[in-house]
Structure formats: C-alpha cells, structure tokens
Specification:
single chain; 473 residues; mainly alpha
C-alpha cells in the first residue's frame, strides 16, 4: 500500500533525475506517482504542489523535445516522399534506404517525445508506398531464406548421421563438444529462414543434438566422480616428510589434468576443493618464503643505507633464488641495478674530471697527483720539452674526433680523410695496432706537448679533445 511518505521520496527522486537530464526515467517515476496518488484518501498539499511542479517540468521538457525533434521528423517525411517519387533502380539499395529512414525515426522516438499521431500516420503511409517498388527484392530474399532452410536441413541430417555412427562407441567429450560447436557455426551461417520454417527447423535441430548433449553430460558426470576420488586421495596423503607430501600431491595433480571436463559449474568448485586439500602441504613452504622475504627486506635496507655494497648484497641474494618471483626480490634487484648504475656513473665522472685536468697539470707544472696515474711518467717527460709539435697535436685531436664521431673543423677535413684511410687500413693489418685507443692518443698528445710555448691554439685543441672524452669515457 502506497503512503504519502513513500510518494514524497519518489517525487524527489524524479526531480533529481530531471536535474541530471534523465528525462525519460524521471517521467516514468512521475507517472507511477500520479497513478499511486489516486489511491490515497487525502493527498497532502505539499505533495500535490510537488506533483504539479514535476508535471510542469515534464511538459516543459516535452515541449523542448518536440521543438528539437519535429523539424527532424519533417525532414525524414520529405526524404521518404522523395523515395516514393524517385525509387532507386537497385531494389536492394532502395530497401536499405527505407530501413535507414525508419531507423532514424525510431531513434527520434527514443531520444525525445514521441511523434504525433498525424505525423506517424503520414510517415507510415509513405513508407508503405515506398516498399511497393521492392517486390522483386523481397522475392529474392524469400528465395535466400528457402535455400538457407534446405542447408539447415542438411546440417540436421549430418548431426543425425554422426549420432547413428557413434552412439555405440562415443568419442571423448572434447571431440563431441567440438563437433557440436562446428555444426552450430555452420547453422549460424545459414540465416535467416522463413517465419513458417523457424520453429520446425529449431525443433529438429535440438532433437538431433540431444543424444550428443546427453552423452556429454554422462561423460561429465563420470569425470566428476573421478575428480572427487582424487580429492579423497589427496586427503589421505600423510607423510612425515613434507617434501614427499608435495611430491605425491603434484603426482595426483598430474592425474587430474589428464581428466576431461566435469561441467562448467562443477569444474570450478572441484578445482578449488582439490587445491584446498593440498594447501596444508604448502604451509611450511609458505612460512619459509615469509621468513626469506623478511631477510630480503633487511638486506634491501642495508643496501639503501649503504652499510653493504652492491657486490656484497648480490652475493647474499644468491641464497634467495627460490623466491625470485616475489615483489620483494624484484625490488631489491631493481635497487641493485640502480645503485650499480650510479656507481658506474660516479666512476665515469671522476675519470672524466681527472682527464680534463691533464692540461692544467701540463701548463702549470704542478698538482700532478690530480692527473690519472697512467700518464704521470709521460707528464714528467713533457716538462723537459722545449717546444710543442702543433702539427702532431692537431693530428691527434682530429683522430680523437673521428673515433668519437664528432665533426672536425673544415680546415681539418683533409687530415681527417687521411686518418680515416689509415684506420681502415689498420683493420686489414694482422699486426695489432694499439695507437688508436683513447689513452694512447692522450699519451702521444702529452709527449708532443711543451708548456714553454703554450698558445691559445693549444688550449683550443684541448677543449676539442675534452668534448671527445665525454663520448669515449
């Protein structure tokens, strides 16, 4: 029995739907409220006002809808008139055009207020006239439907033959399912059929499939019994050694996987029950995993705090290979990789800075400890040089630019070409050439350098070489 309290809630719901733009839903609730309010002995004034207000809103939205949709309906009426006057030469295309206009009309009815009776009668009469020129097309469609029915009869015959040939010794369940699936796909291809044939063909089709479906259910039932026995078998596993328990469980699991389906409803339930029976064997194993995860978390903290080096952590991490698929293991591996990358970058930066300082050491004849140790002897020798060989220094700079794939100035293009030829020739030389690596070239530069005749040219050459260091180190 409706109460005014309930109707208040419903009318508030309708008002909210109006506000949200769900006009059709709001109007449906409003109609129900109006109908129910008639059963009340006394309608409270507040409720009456709310209903009247909602009715006004509904009419307003109907007017808005009509204002938006009526011109569109008039356009559709004009288009169907044109089809009546100028039918398409292709009956099939003509029929598609009529269908398209009818679909657009229906969309307008669902998106707004329905058409007036006069509008609908006008559109419907014109549609019927437009269909008159499609008689040949409908005859063609009818013949297609008749042919489809004949092909569906052949499918039914094929299923009946299959049943007759196999009922004494049915194939495995999976083959039966695949056969029915294939025949169903063929069945779907031959649609539509005449309305007068639908029910008869459907009955014959279902009757033909029934023996196969019955056999599928029979085999599923047998598989269900086998799986239930395997669950009992798991429950009986009780070795003192838990590893033996797990081994036996996995053997039973292998038997399970060879069994066919037991039906969609049964399979999921039985599989959960089977695994639950084996879960007890993994409790000890899970506890060990939890313990190892705690150890990895501690190890990860030591890595981030830098109380242990990345190499030390990597060595200890080998003990936890059994849980390599856990998130914790993956996180620590990621952190190790990041730290190693940072360490390599730090070493590279330090090396780069020490290489760049070579020139200052050469020029100032001091703080030789800031230069890389590998060049100390050559630097000391260079202090004895009285003159630099600018030609050789320029040659070494261009060679370094070539190795670093950095462009050289235009004035050095001829030298660059000669060096390129030399390097290419060295590739075919069986004798190993050790003068084309970074340290050898820098060593030659130091050997040909003298701080007694330093000019801006020396400094510019070194700047170009520093650009190469950033690539090659």
């Amino acid at each position: 029995m409706e109460t005014s309290k309930h109707l208040f809630k419903e009318i508030e719901k309708a008002e909210q739907l109006f506000s949200d733009g769900a006009i059709r839903n709001a109007q449906k609730i409003l109609r129900d409220v109006i109908k129910s309010s008639k059963n009340l002995e006394n309608i409270p004034n507040k409720l009456r006002h709310k209903i009247n207000s909602a009715i006004s809103k509904s009419k307003y939205y109907d007017d808005i809808s009509s204002f938006a949709t009526n011109p569109k309906r008039n356009i559709l009426i004009d288009e169907i008139k044109n089809l009546v006057k100028n039918p398409n030469n292709d009956p099939r295309a003509h029929a598609h055009s009529i269908h398209d206009l009818q679909r657009k009309w229906q969309l307008l009815d669902t998106s707004g207020k329905s058409a007036s009776k006069k509008q609908w009668e006008n559109f419907n009469d014109l549609s019927n006239k437009a269909w008159e020129s499609c008689a040949d097309y409908f005859e063609e469609i009818k013949q297609i439907k008749i042919d489809n029915a004949k092909k569906r009869e052949l499918i039914i015959d094929n299923i009946n033959t299959y049943v007759s040939n196999n009922k004494k010794n049915w194939p495995p369940l999976k083959k039966l399912v695949l056969f029915l699936k294939d025949e169903y796909q063929k069945w779907q291809q031959f649609a539509p059929v005449l309305e007068t044939d639908i029910d008869d063909l459907k009955t014959k089709y279902l009757n033909a499939r029934k023996p196969i479906n019955d056999e599928i259910k029979n085999q599923e039932l047998k598989n269900k019994e086998i799986k239930e026995n395997l669950i009992l078998k798991v429950n009986e596993i009780k070795n003192e050694d838990n590893n033996l328990n797990i081994k036996e469980f996995l053997n039973v699991k292998a038997e399970w996987q060879k069994i066919g389906p037991a039906g969609k409803k049964n399979d999921s339930f039985l599989w959960k029950k089977f695994n639950k029976s084996g879960d007890r064997f993994y409790e000890e194993k899970n506890n060990l995993v939890k313990e190892n995860i705690q150890k990895i978390n501690i190890l990860n903290k030591e890595l981030l705090d830098k109380t242990k080096t990345s190499n030390e952590v990597l060595t200890e991490l080998k003990l936890f290979e059994s849980i390599r698929n856990t998130d914790e293991y993956k996180i620590i591996k990621k952190n190790i990789k990041k730290l190693v990358t940072e360490e390599k970058q730090t070493i590279k930066n330090e090396k780069l800075e020490s290489y760049k300082k070579i020139y200052d050491v050469l020029v100032n004849n001091s703080e030789i400890e800031k230069a890389p140790k590998v060049f100390v002897n050559k630097i000391n020798e260079s202090f004895l040089n009285k003159t630099s060989s600018l030609k050789d220094l320029n040659y070494l700079c261009v060679k370094l630019e070539l190795l670093a794939n950095i462009d050289s100035p235009k004035k050095d293009q001829e030298i660059r070409g000669k060096i390129q030829f030399e390097l290419l020739s060295n590739k075919f030389n069986t004798k190993k050439n050790s003068e084309n690596d970074l340290n050898s070239i820098i060593g030659c530069f130091i050997t040909n350098f003298s701080n007694q005749d330093v000019t801006k040219k020396h400094q510019n050459l070194w700047k170009r070489m520093c650009n190469c260091f950033e690539v090659l180190i």
